[in-house]
Specification:
Shape of chain A: globular
Mean pLDDT of chain B: 81
Shape of chain B: globular
Distance between the termini of chain A: 70 Å
Number of strands of chain B: 9
Distance between the termini of chain B: 33 Å
Number of domains of chain A: 4
Oligomer: heterodimer
CATH class of the largest domain in chain A: Alpha Beta
CATH superfamily of the largest domain in chain A: Ribonuclease H-like superfamily/Ribonuclease H
Structural class of chain A: alpha+beta
Order of helices and strands of chain B: HEEEEEEHEEHHE
Mean pLDDT of chain A: 93
Low-confidence stretches of chain B: 1-8, 14-22, 209-225
Strand content of chain B: 25-35%
Helix content of chain A: 40-55%
Largest sheet of chain A: 6 strands, mixed
Largest sheet of chain B: 9 strands, antiparallel
Radius of gyration of chain A: 28 Å
Low-confidence stretches of chain A: none
Radius of gyration of chain B: 18 Å
Strand order of the largest sheet of chain A: 1-4-3-2-5-6
Structural class of chain B: alpha+beta
Number of helices of chain B: 4
CATH architecture of the largest domain in chain A: 2-Layer Sandwich
Chain lengths: 659, 225
């Protein structure tokens, strides 16, 4: 084990080369001076090692502030050896390391990427949320195996080096990095055996290829309209000032007396006005969180909530893009137990679809209905209980929430998706699977009747389910009501909700809800059998596998969750499989795969390919190795992600310059 | 042939009915016209479908006259103060010309998003597109940009729009569109028979010494660009 220095560099490189000649798989871990691989942060050192935990491990220091660094050309020599000799990279959250190394010339185009954290996700219990190297090492080998990490982090913190590891000397950080490499190699070997033992080789292969595609998507990123970010930030600040003044006027305080961002002061001001919070903290104190503010029928509560929402929009989605042209998200193909993709910085799933209004407006009756619906959807999504009827005066403070249609010429609207635009000579096109989860759910109990529904074009599954389950005809005046029941039960089964919650959604009591559910299962031939089989399997074996062989370890007490894992997981794996196909198809094209959000894939299509390849992509997405009949909608996002319209190949009229 | 005789012959030629004269294959645009074409020229080295030419344009009497500047052509009759304009020209398969004014009943009316009307003339044949290089080569540079972007000139449909009239106010824009209309399969073979640009110009604006420009007017003269 050695931290390489200028004296030992050539010899170390030879050792590395001879190891790679025998087995061209390399474990890598980089140390950096920050977390932003696309900005000014860079590596300060590179840890490499054999996948055999007892094999070669080296640390090459390059940009430490203290101690001896290797000469500049040493980094290029190392990168050159890696480019020539490595066939597979192994790492923990590998894409992070590779993005940094790519800045210094690493080329992973023809390499296999093996992300150990993805392997851990495949093996660990579905309830496990902490998948980092240290918690995984601790779970797998005990606390002693990760004591070095705890000690090192403590030491780094005490020296204030924890934000910038390059401040630590190579001898110290190198030893730490090497231990990370060894632990990664150890987990890799052990979990590889577990993957083989649990028969998850197929899904593991899928994940390895997916890591590569995601790496490319992250590198490319999506183009950002910086000017929009700057202009909108200005408009947002102005609006925040107006809302702040309204809040201060309502409570009769000055800016010096009342800091709106302080929950403590909010509590004091409300209490001073004789208003108590309807929500308590865990310790029994008054809470002034969102759930509390929503349940206070006072205009100031609504304004504070608006203020917080707008402020958060600015800091989360505008501030990071004021000086950048490209947004590089971080896709995590290990981020959810089901296998669904998640993303960070930013979390694409959280980017609001709806726009926001940066001005006061008078509400029509229809506006009030829309706002109440919006509130109800939001409350349900966030799992907040709302027992308060809001007056029109309070309701007006919610009028800043707009719908999902965005008017590009209205400068008083703010849409976060408006930030994201195509590169020059490209068009963004969204490919969205229609009712994917319902289709996958039904595919688990396919029979002639279900197949007939799945193969219909533009089918409304909930209507079909209502007809099958409740024997009701579309001409019946109660058809809509039964369609709603069928919808709630389908999703209730997919997401595993009990009779109590179902009753709430159906507006009835749990006993009645249970009866509807029974009727549904009887009418939807095969659905009950599928549900029972999943539950029985989880109860007996504590696990269930989806169609791609992905294993979910589930607590038998919550065996019903198995259906959700199967449906979500199979949907996720179909999406992953199709992304690999699309990536392969686009290899010799000028168009690119950019994002995956929910069941939607966003591509940027080069102008010269606009009339041809979208249809091909659509048909490739609809195919799948499971033969589940899937349908994909295609929409052009123009001029930005915020505005969608139906795709149609361009005609002469579209190219005429009308000015 | 003396300059007088040559000019006289040109005048006689101009008086003959149009069908008797060699049909011109260049495209002439008027203010606001938009040309949609697929280039036959690729822009690559030794591309025989793209060339540069020097063309004198001058008045003889009330008519405008063109004469190519070439060592094979006697230009002694060209007025002393006439300067040849430097143009580039290329063969293209012209799909349509969009006109801002209706000058033929055959042209189809198209209404734009804001109610503006234009008129489509279908050509669907090979034509030569001659253009001046423009001030500081700005017209030529647009074609070079297309070549850089596409890697060749024939990878998609180009839109060429003329804006303005007269020697000092005219400009052309060349835009690569996402349209992918190709030369129809049954027409591709005809490209083998297209004459070289230089040969075409010699034939049309050289061998008969001075020939009247059948349709051109002062508006078409973009020599200053």
């Amino acid at each position: 084990m050695s931290v390489v220095n200028n004296r030992t560099f050539e010899e170390s490189l030879k050792q590395l080369q001879s190891v790679l000649e025998v087995a061209p798989t390399l474990v890598v871990d980089v140390e950096t001076n920050g977390l932003d691989a696309y900005g000014s942060n860079q590596i300060c050192g590179v840890g490499v090692g054999s996948p055999n935990p007892d094999g070669l491990v080296q640390y090459y220091p390059f940009r430490h502030h203290l101690g001896e660094n290797l000469q500049t050309e040493a980094l290029q020599k190392l990168i050159s050896i890696l480019n020539q000799s490595v066939k597979s990279y192994v790492g923990y959250n590998l894409k992070f390391d590779l993005h940094f190394l790519e800045k210094d010339g690493l080329d992973v185009t023809s390499k296999e990427l093996i992300d150990v954290i993805v392997m851990v996700r495949l093996i660990e219990h579905s309830d496990i949320k902490e998948l980092g190297l240290t918690p995984t090492g601790k779970r797998a080998y005990g606390e002693a195996a990760v004591q070095y990490d705890i000690d090192t982090k403590k030491f780094l913190r005490s020296n204030k080096w924890n934000k910038d590891f390059s401040m630590a000397p190579p001898d110290f950080l190198g030893e730490y990095c090497k231990k990370d490499v060894i632990l990664t190699a150890r987990i890799y070997n052990d979990y590889l055996k577990k993957i083989e033992k649990t028969g998850q080789n197929k899904v593991f292969e899928l994940e390895k290829k997916l890591s590569k595609v995601l790496f490319k998507m992250e590198m490319l990123g999506i183009s950002v309209d910086k000017d929009y970010a700057v202009a909108t930030k200005t408009a947002l600040l102005k609006r925040l000032g107006e809302v702040r003044q309204q809040i201060l006027a309502l409570c009769g305080k000055t800016e010096e007396e009342f800091n709106i961002s302080s929950p403590k002061q909010i509590g004091e001001v409300f209490n001073g006005m004789g208003i108590k919070s309807p929500v308590k903290t865990g310790k029994g104190n008054e809470s002034w969180n969102e759930a509390a503010l929503i349940n206070i029928n006072h205009r100031m509560a609504g304004l504070i909530r608006q203020y917080r929402t707008l402020e958060k929009l600015g800091s989360t989605y505008l501030d990071p893009y004021l000086e950048t042209d490209v947004m590089h998200t971080n896709f995590c193909n290990w981020g959810t137990a089901t296998g669904r993709l998640s993303s960070r910085e930013p979390n694409l799933q959280n980017i609001p679809r709806n726009h926001f209004k940066l001005h006061e407006r008078d509400l029509t009756d229809q506006d009030k209905i829309d706002i109440r619906n919006n509130i109800s959807a939001m409350v349900s999504q966030k799992g907040i209980t709302m027992d308060t009827e809001l007056s029109d005066e309070v309701l007006s403070t919610w009028s800043f929430m707009g719908g999902d249609t965005y008017n590009d010429s209205d400068t008083k609207q703010l849409a976060i998706r408006r930030l994201f635009v195509p590169r020059p000579n490209h068009t963004l096109i969204g490919f969205d699977y229609q009712q994917m989860e319902v289709r996958v759910f039904m595919s688990y109990f396919r029979n002639e009747t279900i197949d007939a529904i799945l193969n219909k074009n533009d089918v409304d599954f909930h209507s079909e389910a209502a007809k099958l389950a409740f024997g009701i005809d579309e001409s019946s005046p109660r058809f809509k009501e039964y369609r709603q029941y069928a919808k709630a039960i389908t999703f209730g089964t997919i997401y595993g909700i009990g009779n109590k919650k179902l009753a709430q959604q159906l507006g009835t009591n749990p006993r009645e809800a249970g009866k509807f559910k029974k009727q549904y299962f009887e009418g939807m031939e095969g659905s009950k059998d599928f549900f029972d089989k999943v539950v029985k399997k989880v109860e007996l074996r504590g696990m269930v596998k989806n169609r791609y062989g992905r294993q979910y370890k589930i607590n038998p007490q919550f065996a019903y969750k198995g259906v959700n894992y199967l449906v979500q997981g199979t949907s996720a794996d179909i999406l992953s499989e199709r992304m690999l196909v699309i990536d392969d198809y686009l290899l010799d094209k000028k168009s690119n795969l950019l994002l995956q959000v929910h069941d939607e894939i966003i591509c940027e299509i080069h102008d010269s390919e606009f009339n041809t390849i979208p249809y091909k992509i659509q048909s490739l997405l609809e195919e799948n190795t499971l033969n589940v009949p899937l349908k994909v909608d295609m929409e052009v996002c123009s001029p930005s992600w915020a505005t969608k319209k139906n795709y149609k190949p361009a005609e002469l009229e579209d190219y005429i310059d009308w000015d | 042939m003396s300059g007088i005789a040559r000019i006289a012959q040109g005048r006689d030629d101009a008086k003959r009915p149009l069908p008797e004269r060699a049909a011109g294959r260049e495209v002439w645009l008027k203010d606001g016209d938009q040309l949609f074409l697929t280039s036959v020229a690729t822009g690559e080295e030794n591309d025989k479908f793209l060339d540069e030419i020097y063309l004198y344009t001058f008045r003889v009497g009330n008519r405008w006259t063109n004469l190519i500047k070439d060592e094979k052509v006697d230009t002694s009759g060209v007025p002393e103060d006439a300067r040849p304009s430097h143009k580039f020209a290329f063969w293209a398969y012209v799909h349509n010309i969009i006109h801002s004014e209706k000058r033929s009943e055959d042209w189809m009316e198209i209404e734009g998003p804001a109610g503006k009307k234009v008129f489509r003339e279908d050509i669907n044949d090979f034509r030569i597109v001659p253009l001046g290089f423009g001030r500081s080569d700005h017209v030529w540079n647009q074609l070079v940009d297309v070549y850089s972007d596409w890697g060749a000139l024939n990878k998609g449909v180009l839109r060429i729009k003329r804006t303005g009239a007269g020697a000092f106010d005219t400009s052309y824009s060349i835009t690569a569109t996402p349209k992918i209309d190709e030369i129809p399969a049954d027409k591709v073979k005809e490209t083998e028979e297209l004459p070289l640009i230089k040969d075409y110009y010699l034939e049309r604006y050289g061998n008969t010494d001075i020939i009247d420009i059948a349709k051109s007017t002062a508006d078409d003269d973009d020599e200053l660009f």
